[in-house]
Amino acid sequence: MSIVRAERRRLFKRRFTKYMILVGIVILAAIAAGVFFTNSKPGPETLAAAQAQADRQYEDSIGYWNSRGKAECEASMKANPDTSKMPVEEVCRGPRKEDFQAEWYMPSSFDFKDEFPAMITVWAAIMGLITFVIGASFVGAEWNSGGMMNLLLWRPKRSVVLSAKLGSLIGGAVVWSLAIGAVWTAALWFVATVRGTTTGMTSGTWQSFGLMGLRGLGLALTLGIIGFTLATLGRHTAMALGVAAAVIVVFQFGVGIVLNLAGVRWVEAYLLPTHMIAWMDKEYIIEDYQSCNFSSGECKPETLTLTWVNTGTVMAIIIAVLVGLSYWNMSRRDVA
């Protein structure tokens, strides 16, 4: 039997792999169920009730405005004439009918076109989490149990063994991520059909969703490779989990606090969630409110735009460094 086939079978036969995939499916199923039960499909009766509520709110606002609101607004403007450059009649114009739209009083409804991108990010995050843990356990458990030593007696070429394991992880992650992603898409399409709307979907929209899904798959694979390589370097699953915890607790919170105290600009650019959002949404705009001069009135802060290309470059560098170190470490250290 080829080593690649053996590693692929070992990956999918492991109970831990099955349990982690099941955990991911359960989490996504719970989210889909929550979306289903918290949304409803609007009908004529719902629209009529929303319009009636909007009319009531408008009438209540008009009543308050005529009785007290207008007088209070005009008195405030006269007492503080420098607070606004607009004329009194424009500021104190009172509520208008168009300010009370019926759709603002409609119950929540799942719009597939508008809300599915966020659901793709949810899927990518969960796939990334389970792939990270599976990848770390896949190689770390074998180092810990002595299985790696036995395997290297059968196939003493260490780089071939490590490549087979890493390739099996990547291939397996692609399979379970795409399979779960297809079911996830179908489930949310069903929710939108019975509890919302699927209008506005075009071939271009589907293409955009597909590209976003590919970026999500890339994120999941990146996290899986990171977990795998960290466990390879430490020769234990706990190595990957410990580094992940340290990055979250020390780097994310600690560095964020230190940079804020030091008055460093673009603090968000140093935080991992920012880069993940930029990767999934193609860009993320960071605003520097420290550049504002509020004494002049209107504030237009300076901005810094992170793109998916920036984040992709960082991800590629991290993967290249960790994979290179893993192969170097595998080739130089004794097995025992």
TrEMBL record:
It holds the Pfam family ABC2_membrane_2. Keywords: Membrane, Transmembrane, Transmembrane helix. The keyword Membrane applies. GO terms for cellular component: plasma membrane. GO terms for molecular function: ABC-type transporter activity. The chain crosses the membrane at residues 20-37, 116-141, 162-192, 212-233, 240-262, 308-328. It comes from the Bacteria. The keyword Lipid metabolism does not apply. This is ABC-type transport system involved in multi-copper enzyme maturation permease subunit.
